[in-house]
Write a structure and sequence with these properties.
The protein has 298 residues and is mostly helical. Helices cover 73% and strands 0% of the residues. Belongs to the EamA transporter family.
């Protein structure tokens, strides 16, 4: 394996290990912050960090390219995280962590429809059925029956938005711009799109909650680590490996989330949760199985 590809795999691995714990950090912050407040603060911090890392301007993009940046910001920064954060107010962090891992399915489907990538085979649909069985087990979560239709549905819609984001990012990776600069431009549009939701939710300016050690730590983790760093490393992996190959690493997020949910939030891990996680991972691997060939960009 060449050095560049190895770097792409390493970047994706680091990304999912961090992202797998963001559900926990967000759940903690939800005690004092509204979902859209967390979203806005983390990406403003992320944008500022990326600007400091690369203060130069990006070369002028075409109108079509600019629209792609805007669409990526809307789907991957605004709608995905807004839906995910709201879902966390209704359902368990482990539920959200596993359900959003369905996003590789949406990535593969949208890549086929929009980017005209490889044909989906029977193995893909078999994997989808297996993964849905796993998600059902985790949603019911044993005797506790922790099913919440609103929260779980929002998590599923978040997965669809991430599939859209991955498709747009795949297109953006072919524009030839710096990964840091394209990520920053995507953040810019994402922040713009979330401002109306922020105004409607009633952003509170009471500063006391911002200076709580727990709040500071979690906001810094989400803003600098999970946003600024991870979006750059993820987009770099998409650029090097392709959208579908990179999305395979999302399979690891449910495992990280379930373990950290049990350790930090003391959420129960039943035999059904374990079986459901295993089925979901097996289903996703089956679904993303490829019969060779390279991904292409138009």
């Amino acid at each position: 394996m060449e050095r560049k590809q190895l770097g792409g795999h390493f970047s994706a691995l680091v990304t999912v290990l961090i992202w797998g714990t963001t559900f926990i950090s967000t759940k903690v912050l939800l005690a004092d912050f509204a979902p859209v407040e967390i979203l806005f603060l983390r990406f403003v911090m992320g944008f500022a960090a990326l600007y400091l890392a690369a203060p130069r301007k990006m070369e002028k993009a075409s109108r079509r390219q600019e629209l792609t940046f805007a669409a990526a910001g809307l789907c991957g920064v605004c709608l995905y995280y807004l839906m995910e954060n709201i879902a966390l107010t209704y359902t368990m962090a482990s539920n959200v962590g596993v359900i959003v891992s369905v996003s590789p399915f949406f990535t593969a489907i949208l890549s086929r429809i929009i980017l005209k990538e490889e044909k989906l085979h029977a193995r893909f649909f078999l994997g989808f059925v297996v993964a849905m069985a796993g998600i059902a087990l985790i949603s019911f979560n044993g005797a506790a029956m922790k099913l919440n239709l609103t929260g779980d549905f929002l998590a599923l819609m978040a997965a669809l938005m991430w599939g859209c984001y991955s498709t747009f990012t795949r297109k953006i990776s072919g524009y030839g711009f710096s990964t840091i600069l394209t990520t920053r431009r995507t953040f810019f549009y994402g922040i713009l799109f979330m401002i109306p939701a922020l105004c409607l939710s009633g952003f509170r300016m009471d500063t006391e909650r911002f200076f709580q050690p727990v709040s500071i730590g979690n906001l810094l983790f989400l803003g600098l680590g999970a946003s600024a760093l991870c979006f750059v490393t993820w987009n770099y992996s998409v650029k090097v490996l392709g959208a579908i190959k990179t999305s395979i690493y999302i399979y690891m997020i449910p495992v990280v989330t379930v373990l950290t949910s049990a350790l930090v939030l003391k959420e129960p891990v039943t035999w059904m949760t374990g079986a459901g996680t295993l089925l979901t991972l097996v289903g996703l691997f089956l679904s993303e199985g490829k019969k060779g060939g390279n991904e292409k960009l138009d």
